[in-house]
Specification:
With about 200 residues, this protein is α+β, with helices and mostly antiparallel strands. The chain is built from four helices and nine strands. The strands form two sheets. The protein has a five-stranded antiparallel beta sheet with strand order 2-6-5-4-7, covered by helices on one side. It has a four-stranded antiparallel beta sheet with strand order 3-1-8-9. Strand 4 and strand 5 form a beta hairpin. The longest helix has 18 residues.
């Protein structure tokens, strides 16, 4: 049996407290506009690194082993959370997102995961999409403009996330919306290299 999987960073640590006042304002504004919108639960906030897709259940242990091995070469790191935007754009939005700092070590972690998964034939198609780190906070059932609603929060800072692990999630569709369940966590357990400007690469 196949399961729909993806790899992501857990983004629930300190963001909930920093973002809560803005979140409340957005929800009130959306209610006033009678928007058909689903707010992602804060305990399910994540930053997608690699969407694997349908994956054989019997190969999940190999995927977990590979994930843990890659993560052992990276140390924990911080990412700034700032800006707010929408896909496909602010005038025709289906998704509202928060921007995540595209730090050098974040890109290195993603690239290493992508390459290792390909080398071990755990995925057969490389991720062709440009990597744009973001955190989805809401999904709209029907596209509409959110420009006025999110404009007060453009370029606003929502603090930092301390990233300690990479999570293997399963995605299931329940009704019109996806539900994400964490299946495995691999700790970023590499020793910090003190002369690195990013402070996240293993010294080993």
């Amino acid at each position: 049996m196949d399961r729909r999987l993806f790899l992501a960073l857990d983004a629930t640590s300190s963001l909930a407290d920093n973002f809560l006042p803005t979140h409340k304002k957005l929800r009130i504004n959306a209610d006033r506009r009678e928007m058909d919108i689903r707010w992602v639960p804060m305990d399910n906030y994540h930053i997608t690194l690699n969407f694997i897709g349908d994956f054989p259940e019997e190969k999940i242990p190999a995927l977990q082993e590979t994930l843990s091995e890659v993560c052992s070469h990276f140390a924990p790191f911080d990412l700034k959370v700032e800006d707010m935007g929408a896909f496909s754009n602010e005038h025709d939005a289906r998704v509202i997102w928060l921007g995540i700092q595209n730090k050098r070590c974040l890109g290195a972690l993603k690239n290493t995961l992508d390459q290792t998964l390909m080398e071990r034939k755990l995925v057969t198609t490389p991720d062709a999409r440009d990597f744009f780190p973001h955190l989805t906070i809401a999904r709209l059932r029907n596209p509409r403009s959110v420009k006025d609603m999110i404009s007060p929060f453009k370029r606003k800072s929502f603090g930092k996330l301390h990233i300690r692990d990479v999570v293997l999630y399963e995605s299931k569709i329940q009704g019109p919306w996806p539900v994400y369940t964490p299946l495995w966590r691999a700790s970023l357990s590499g020793a910090t290299e003190q002369d690195s400007t990013d402070y996240c690469f293993s010294a080993s």
